[in-house]
Amino acid sequence: MMSVLKKSVLPLIVAAYVVGPSARSSPVQSQVSVFEIRSIGFDGNETFSTSELRDLIQIRETPGFLSKTLHGWFESLGRPNEYLDPFTLGEDLNRIRQHYRDHGFQQVKVDSLITHKPDKSSVEIDINITEGYRSIIDTLEYRGIINVPEVVHEARQSGAKIEKGDYYNKVVLEEELKRLIVILNNEGYAKAAFVRESSWARYYTSTGNYSVVLFFAPNRRYRFGAIDIINELDSTRKDIDSVDVLRQLDYEPGNIYSTYALKSSERNLNRTGIFDLARVTIQVPAQESDSITVDSRVRLRPKDKHELAPEVSLSDENLNFNLGVGLGYSNRNFFGGARTASARVRFRTATLGEFPDFFKLETDAVANVDVTFELLQPYIFTNNIRGSWSLSYIRDKQKLYLSTIFQNKFGFSQRVAEFTTAYLELTQQYIQLDRRRNIVIDSTDGETLRQLRDLAAQKEQFNSIVSFTIQRDMTNDIFSPSKGFIHALTVEESGLLPLVLRDLGWVKRPFTQFYRLNLIGRWYSDLTNNRRFSIFALKLRAGFEEKYGESRSDTARAIPQTNRFYAGGGGSIRGWSSRDLSSTGNPQFGGNVLFEGSIELRTNIFQSLKDNLFDKIWTVLFFDFGTVWPEARNVQLRTIALAAGFGIRYDTFFGPFRIDYGFRVYNPGGDAAGRQWITQRKLFGQTLREGIIHFGIGHAF
């Protein structure tokens, strides 16, 4: 026996009441509107979590005292009492049933039990679910995809969202339809369509399973035709050559039509930095037309060629909160080629209290001044490779030293896959470093004495660093991701080029041979079924560096301070200040081995207000762990520090503004009395009073 289920309106089922004897005398209907909902529970839900089911329903539990009080003061804050509405409850039960049926539970039963509390004015609601058998897809057939290139069939098979034998899932089936349309669109079938009238998902009562047929109409295969470039501000910019625009496109006339090529072309144009807006539109011929070409229009809105802009900046660079000012000049389309030349001077400090002695050696000032000329080239051999060249003069003041850096850097980037980018940097640095003399050093600490020796060895250095990074970014938002991940691996080498040049007699400055590895992963997950209400975030980072070659055993050569690892601060372990954490020695000297991680729970507590003001506020609970070790031989698990805390984020157009308060859970070094764990110290008088406040722009990771 076969039964075909069609879309229909299910009968509304109003739950039965279980009421005490004293409540029977009053009509139910007259009491419903004043029954406060004390609790909503779910029983029998094995496949879907309670939180997932709560997101489906409209009835809510009465909030707590604080929320009701806030709502009494300000209607936009908190929530009022929630009362039972049988009609809404019935609709909620139907939504739950439909959710289960959309996931293969055709025989699901959903009922509710309402119990009156002794106060006769409130109720508890229990939603009981009997899931039953979960249907699978017995047969899965794709029809209509004929006379198409083999690459279409290969793409269909390689990344299928659902296969024969999988549980029936309406949502995943819809994703599969969209995936097939994208495949066809990218292979020239601009008018490919899914034919619902010829497709079906049939449920067989005899087996309890589904037979699925998906019918597609690829229609005609198209090629790209003429390309028309329209400059929306052509009266003010005559210097942008059409050749520079065309070579940023990932297609040309005669190529097979592809929606991916259109999107990537648009992205390439916007990444050049010389346009306020670059948009590619198309006109697909009408079905009755014999034409197989798709013409495109490239609409451009150029930025001003010259720009002089003052800057005020807030950043957490070098794991510290920095306030800065600057002035920058940009020349867009510098000598053509869509390249950009810029010059800038920037000053930032983390110690405003040291004014005006930001660069005085014998102070605790932390400041930086950077004068840089940079040239950005958006096309090197291909529009997939971009380059940059910069010259910089940098003065970097840290608590223990002042360094003067002359730097020359070449950079290249290439998108090697849709979500994967490779970076190559070649950096030459000449560094002069002056060590602070008035610091108090524990002469009994051998590690600190070794670090001081290394610092003295850096009085003058020539560094030539080759850095390669491969990064895969699968997140869904550049500022506040709610799902996806970022994986990045960086490999650096320094000393090979100076070694060759020294042997040729061209370099006589001291240098150090070393290599450096840095691995980082960030993961994000929406715990609230894509509502962006509660986000779980995790970060893990590990780093290692070591001298090699003739530098390995030479105590007169040291890894530069600019290339050391540091721990502590707003982007690291937040129970410590910036560069204030290490397993041994002085943390301001940094170390050669790093391990750290962070766990965050980010909650958009006022999301339901949707007022574009309070709904931008997020609360964050975090737990950090990690440290820096001076050398690999110092690595011990018991020296890993632990911190926890809470914070607030406020979303802005340039990313969230961040305030975090972190305190120490486990301090491997202990306090003056040798106490390491939070349980050994007074909670308010010591642990919380000694907590650290961090400010920053953007999430901690």
Describe the structure.
The structure is a single chain. The protein is mainly beta. Helices cover 15% and strands 38% of the residues. β15 (367-377) and β16 (385-397) form a beta hairpin. The two termini are 57 Å apart.
Could you outline the blueprint of secondary structure elements for this entry?
Layout: E1 16-18, H1 28-32, E2 36-43, H2 50-54, H3 65-73, H4 86-102, E3 109-116, E4 122-130, E5 137-143, H5 150-158, H6 170-186, E6 193-194, E7 200-204, E8 209-217, E9 223-231, H7 242-246, H8 259-271, E10 275-283, E11 293-302, E12 306-315, E13 322-332, E14 340-349, E15 367-377, E16 385-397, E17 401-417, E18 420-435, H9 446-456, E19 460-473, E20 484-494, H10 496-503, E21 514-526, E22 534-547, E23 593-603, E24 617-629, E25 641-650, E26 657-666, H11 683-688, E27 692-697
Parallel strand pairs: 1-3, 2-4, 5-8, 9-11
Antiparallel strand pairs: 3-4, 6-8, 7-8, 10-11, 12-13, 13-14, 14-15, 15-16, 16-17, 17-18, 18-19, 19-20, 20-21, 21-22, 22-23, 23-24, 24-25, 25-26, 26-27
